[in-house]
């Protein structure tokens, strides 16, 4: 008998919501209870009114929910009741908007999978350092598991509350994680150079993502200290004074391509890297290693070959002349960089095969 | 107990082969026996060597098969033996290259699903008119079913040999088919205007599809008589002297967007079109009707909302001032315009749920 | 001695304004007096603050002007005084917004070149039919010359007020114009199929042109009666009941590709088309004929080969089977489809070499 | 009286040749004598047969020249005679192919501007280290000036032979050059991260640049030691053991976006960087500084704002937490990264205004 999980989506109109709908409408163990919006004119309308691609795939209609609007007490309460009766609720709202929702949802039987950044950090001081404000619900932080199965699978099995990493964090962590396993070794400088697609900026129209303006760019945007580095620091223990990152918007919709340029204080051989990468990801279904010396398509991670899937491809090289190590990762920002982690976490939390539904999403090298 | 179908792919390196592999490696009722290549250096190599996206998804290795090369008798024989022991063989070679393969494969128990144009036409005279040569195996033509389930589902249930339509044919036929059901009506002039992506031209590098040259084009290519019109004529009975088409290469990789401008000899109302489109596709899982007057994303068929899936979206309008009817279709040229038809046909031929595997391929509006 | 023309731009932040700035900052006979904005925070700021590409090319700063805002009387008056002292003012505001400006500017020595649609039609009744309202300044209509040099060069030489056609109108008119010269012949049905880039929709961010949503589309938008057809009717005399058009947004930023499918009531030979196209454009510097039968890049008009320039490429073919004629045009919507016409008109109005500055803008086939 | 320079192009079909033609056909001081090809079927054909964008811009026809083919002695000799009578010859052949041409051309009055990498390095030992072979004409190396006006303007004024840098070299050198002027300072580690467009790979069709394969990539290609680093070392004196680079192919046709991540051994302030960047480029017309802290479009160099022009935009930042400096450059690989340097050098060599023709090529932010 198939186990059926009652699931709801808070934030059904953004790109996280859209991607959750794309994945969950075809998850054989999931029965979607609701997907919310705060746009009044969408309430009661079929999902495909906002997401035309989903025509014919679900009969679900948008529910009203606007946690920021006190006048909405009644509507919000109705939705919250539905949420509390669900087995799991996915929160797909922008970072900062999750607190009000969470406050009303904790303490019930419902599990929470939050894709925002609001509960990812364990240490309120770290939150304050990177987000420039006090965490409003610091006591909850330790109840959350960081929803990256490759690092926290055992905890996820017992987790009730999960905060899933976003695309840049996932890319930096999965590229860098094997470095933590290098023999007698943790002292290096690392700078991540990250290339991102336009969907990372979300569904809200604005000039920087207007088609005419966003097409054809190679635009530096966060070039210095970045909030997501807090997660790399937490998860990998990298020395914050030796960790930095710069991001570039490039002409694509989906995908994150990430390289960590690493300057170690001793010579590292490529075979050492092979060892720690294999060790780190030997049993992972969704992390694939590409580190061929041959060059050419597919020899190192390229977003081209993960787009549309839950794979994160990782690779590495040693530049003998300079002693520099390169660690590379490529993922689809809406899948392994977002809802892929969320659904993979759900599968684990509910004792399902971890790859359910996700492995059906085969990457095509013919998506742009 | 799950029925397992032993399937093979002849032509595993082209885009049809790639797409078949993307679909069939995750089809729960299919066990892939082989995928062939004629490139010697690929033989025995894992599939992902040529198709990096498939790393981790299949252990299959390329088999040698080159029907055009007589010196290869031994290698070809070995493969042909495997083929004859399979339940079904997909032929994914360019049009014109299927004859030699077919000759060696007919008369055994193996079913054939051919994605080339070689066996699509019933009438050898029609073949000669559009392909400028005699059909080499005319006696076989009547043993083939035209592999478009929306028009030939009942025949497919009993079919042994199937010739599936390509992307332009499928787009023109599914857009035009409801017109054949208009009351007391078959006299009109129709010109199809078709926009295509670069993957339609196949995997072979050449100048016209070199990235720098192909990017940013809106390039007329087949503007006059086109071979594929023979299929429209065969399937819909449109008067050949009143049927024409022009094609434009536009800046995308996947997708066909097709509009038929129709000039009828009487006034047609939009509600009549609603009636015949509904009638034609009421029970179809993979044909969705979009014909909203509101305008805006999703109101009419747009490749954006079918990309990556087996859907063909269709729509229509009446331009009251001129009396012109527009019939529109949008599909993914590698799915509903190619291997989607092939796998949907296989599902029907083997008594499976017609949507098996195919409905899992949810279109994302965030693919380019 | 070089003749210097004092010119101003009303509407300096939109894409027409941007393109005017790109052209005029390097026009050796033009001295830019002002470029306006109604966004307060831009006033007094250098042009490159809004248009980063123009850094280093001009020292001009934005001037305030907001004709829709009565509270601005003072600021508007100041600008209007500058405008009235200029030799020519380019009006680059959206259609409908030009009336208030024009009212204040006519009757002075200043020439006006208006790129909006507000003064393109001669007949107020035609305006009403297509724009669904009375023209607010009908008496002015006959003082305007339609700013398409290929059809109105002689009038432009003496013109004081010019209304330039936009991209779709220019494309339809230049493709169709030679048909008016066919011997003993004006009876046919024509449907234009037009493919457009995202910059046509202007600089205002909105969902339909959000990068993630606009990328990868082939989206039907105006499929029926369209305002721009009024201009085709006025300029070419085509029978309105036999004239129609459908438009598709395709994945590019700049460019219009237009095909007119023409169904004549007699057989037309390709050599007749050669004759009338040559006759129509023999002396035109910016209209190039492409009508090779060979196929391949460059054999027919393709936006790829006009992008960035003031060329409009035109071509044609006869489809012998169906008797259909195809007339094709390709242009850059911001140049020959907008400010190219405006500057070419200015050159003519002021007695300059018509190609001044414009011919320097060589199209590159390596722009996307 | 306008000075007219007789110029020829060896290698007229590649992208360097194409770009030279785009620039030089409209250079008021240049009279093109010839453009060569080694493809027999193009010889005697108009330029636009191969480069459709140039239709109407030049009457030049392709001349035969194939230095690699000894059987061609006669044809080659004819061309070489023309070359020797020209004031200047641009050599636009791939690196390695210039030697045979050069051998036959030195010693005459003709000046040479070579865009290949064959004569860029002064030191034959350096050539051998990076190109893995002996330089075939080492005695000539010192007769060449490195054709980057920002570093070698005075030498260019007297130069007879010039070897112009390519796109990656120009990007790395112009981003890094100001660092050489930092007070009491030359000790740091630098890694360049470079993003490139598809036109950099040239006009030859191959799988890696097939449209379907090249679209949508973020593909690491040269991740380790790279030949172009030799030029950075030569021009800037950077310590080779602390200098490295990784390159990524991204989804665009034109453009190079380059960031140098710099790890200095003392704290560097942003105002120091302002000082040295201003000092380095104060008098440069084609180098623009962008280093705003505000973020947003245009605050730092972005290929979007240089595409189509000869500008190289440069910028910088200091990441206070890590002490890392970022130096950024953006250029059009076919202009400032190739023929822009060549034509700017020519202008200087012949005593013309350095910006002749080049400043007319205004970048548009609406090219992709």
Helix residue percentage of chain A: 25-40%
> Which structural category do the helix and sheet elements of chain A fall into?
alpha/beta
Please name the fourth-level CATH homologous superfamily of the largest domain in chain A.
NAD(P)-binding Rossmann-like Domain
| CATH C-level label of the largest domain in chain A | Alpha Beta
Radius of gyration of chain A: 20 Å
Largest sheet of chain A: 7 strands, parallel
CATH architecture grouping of the largest domain in chain A: 3-Layer(aba) Sandwich
Number of helices of chain A: 10
CATH third-tier fold name of the largest domain in chain A: Rossmann fold
Shape of chain A: globular
Give the DSSP E fraction of chain A (strand runs of 2 or more residues): 15-25%
Q: Mean of the pLDDT scores of chain A? A: 96
Greatest interface and its residue counts? A-D, 58 and 58 residues
Q: Assembly type of the shown chains?
A: homotetramer
**Number of extended strands of chain A:** 14
The topology string of helices and strands of chain A comes to EHEEHEHEHEHEHEHEHEEHEEEH
The N- to C-terminal Cα distance of chain A equals 39 Å
């Amino acid at each position: 008998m198939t186990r059926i999980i009652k699931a709801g989506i808070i934030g059904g109109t953004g790109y996280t919501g859209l991607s959750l709908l794309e994945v969950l409408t075809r998850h054989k163990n999931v029965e979607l209870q609701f997907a919310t919006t705060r746009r009044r004119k969408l309430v009661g309308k079929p999902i495909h009114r906002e997401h035309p691609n989903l025509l014919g795939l679900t009969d679900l209609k948008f529910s009203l929910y606007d946690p920021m609007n006190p006048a909405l007490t009644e509507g919000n309460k109705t939705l919250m009741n539905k949420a509390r009766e669900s087995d799991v609720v996915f929160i797909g709202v922008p970072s900062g908007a999750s607190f009000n929702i969470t406050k009303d949802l904790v303490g019930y039987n419902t599990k929470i999978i939050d894709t925002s950044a609001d509960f990812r950090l364990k240490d309120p001081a770290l939150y304050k350092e990177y987000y420039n404000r006090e965490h409003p619900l610091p006591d909850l932080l330790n109840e959350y598991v960081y929803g990256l199965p490759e690092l926290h699978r055992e905890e996820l099995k017992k987790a009730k509350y999960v905060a899933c990493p976003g695309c840049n964090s996932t890319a930096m962590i999965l590229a860098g994680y094997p470095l933590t396993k290098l023999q007698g070794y943790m002292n290096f400088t690392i700078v991540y150079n990250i290339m991102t697609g336009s969907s990372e900026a979300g569904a809200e129209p604005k000039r920087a993502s207007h088609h005419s303006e966003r097409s054809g760019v190679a635009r530096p945007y966060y070039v210095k200290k970045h909030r997501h580095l807090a997660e790399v620091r937490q998860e990998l223990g990298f020395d914050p004074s030796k960790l930095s990152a710069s991001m570039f918007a490039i002409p694509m919709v989906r995908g994150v391509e990430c390289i960590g340029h690493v300057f170690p204080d001793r010579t590292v051989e490529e075979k050492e890297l092979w060892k720690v990468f294999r060790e780190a990801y030997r049993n992972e279904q969704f992390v694939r290693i590409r580190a061929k010396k041959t060059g050419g398509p597919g020899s190192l991670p390229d977003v081209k070959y993960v787009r549309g899937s839950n794979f994160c491809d990782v690779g590495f090289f040693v530049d003998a002349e300079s002693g520099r190590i390169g660690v590379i990762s490529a993922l689809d920002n809406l899948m392994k960089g977002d809802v892929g982690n969320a659904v993979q976490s759900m599968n684990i939390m509910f004792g399902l095969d971890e790859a359910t539904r996700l492995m059906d999403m085969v990457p095509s090298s013919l998506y742009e």
